[in-house]
Design brief:
The complex is a heterodimer of chains A (161) and B (84). With 161 residues, chain A is of the alpha/beta class. Chain A has helices at 9-17, 23-30, 40-50, 53-58, 64-77, 97-105, 116-121, 127-135, 144-153; strands at 3-7, 34-39, 79-81, 110-112, 140-142. Chain A has 9 helices and 5 strands. Chain B folds into 2 domains: 9-39; 43-81. Chain B has helices at 9-21, 26-39, 43-55, 61-81. The chains are: A alpha/beta (161), B mainly alpha (84).
Amino acid sequence: MSIPVVYDTMLFLQAASRPDRTHATFRAIRERSVTLCLSARLLAEVRDVLTRAEVRAKFHALVPEAVDAFIEDIAGLASLYDVIPAVFAWPAHPDDDHVFDLAIHARARYLVTWETRILNLATTASPAAQTLRQLAPNLAIINPKAFADLIRAGLPDRERS
Amino acid sequence: MTLVIPVSSDVESKLRERAAAEGEDPTEYAARLLAQAVSRPSVEQLLAPFRKQVADSGMDDEQVDEFFREQLDAIRRDAKANPT
């Protein structure tokens, strides 16, 4: 398996709507430079947003057939994890717990996100940050642009599992 | 045209299993699946009208992100209010 990575939900929504914003990160999956780790819950979140009535009302061209094809395409490229133990709790942002649980369970090397609160967790000394470092000492949290730069520069061999 | 496509052992065993269930040779079965796949519109083709609509919406990247973030927050709120 190439380098295991977790992308947060917003990256998939960007990939569906404006692929230019996530081009390098998703190309890395297709080129097998990284292995996308996905949970059923994360995939369900992406589907739920893209099929939400408010989204269809704003973007009527997003037809169910396109959403199905997008989800199927992503799932086909990923390592899917159906059952993931809940081991991490971030009281300030519990909605993000499942993304961290996936990263911990899949032993992901990178968690890629645009979310400042998640990026900041990597550098803070909060109890949640300390717990995360204990549960996933090798996990790096990084934004898509920095991750794309890293891919372009060539990920070191020691990164590969 | 003849293609040589490397597949994992897992894919191979599933392919053989399904081909056998359909009473077909694995190669013929794989060719039929491939023909079905390429006759359907691609993901990119299916998403193109949506992507054009987003591009033509007048919203900048931050506004589009904000819209989808709000939808994601709403989904998560709904899930908490109606746990299954």
